[in-house]
Design a protein that fits this description.
Length: about 270
Amino acid sequence: MRTARATRLRDAVYGQAVGDALGVPYEFLGRGAFEFEGMIGGGSHGCKAGTFSDDTSMTLATCDSLRELGRIDVDDMRERFVRWWRRGDYTPDGVCFDIGNTTSSALRSGHGGEGVRDNGNGSLMRISPLAFVDATDEEIRAVSAITHAHEISCQACVDFVHILREAAGRPETLRASLVERYASTSESDLSTGGYVLGTLEAALWCFARTTSYRDCVVAAVMLGEDTDTTADVAGALAGTYYGIESIPVEWLEILRAKSLIESCLF
Ligand SMILES: [Mg+2]
């Protein structure tokens, strides 16, 4: 039988994998420039429907490291990220079709980007598994810093992990605080171009402004631009909060590489 934390990890990972796959076909399209058509194929990478991207692949690599070692080992995580990038591990088609600039530089050099311009959402999008293990804030920062070592990115990861833990443990307190926090934020205040704080704010806003997993991730996709990552982060939160049973079955059916996902969970 799964422990409560293992169940929540599963909720989060499926929540984000489905969000990621929903967003992939619309990545880079502007807000208001497209209609949401469900879990379809296509997009700038020409993917089959249900294909998740780097966000979920790097999350699975993180899970697999935690599963196999039973502890947080950033060197092992980095090696798995390299195998994803170079060999296509943790992907539906055995190929890495998208990687951010900061991530590729970090994996090439062995050092996470420390510049203020290295604050894309590339560590936020893969940090969720840390919410469901005994990870200190310093350990969360260290896992971010494998690729994104600037304080803004590290702190965003710490904040999001704390939010996921709250979603798992004190869900109504979390919802009330986020609803209040975003009460006067409008869609035009949100930026979804890939900056880590923009992505985090947009994902939290989508969660606060909706009342179901489906509506939350559709709202995230409809914000445009970095659709897969906004929906990945929003999906991790909505998955944790509402549970895997809230994810529309037709989306779970189309989601690819579910046996790979299962093999990485613990
Ligand atoms: Mg992606």
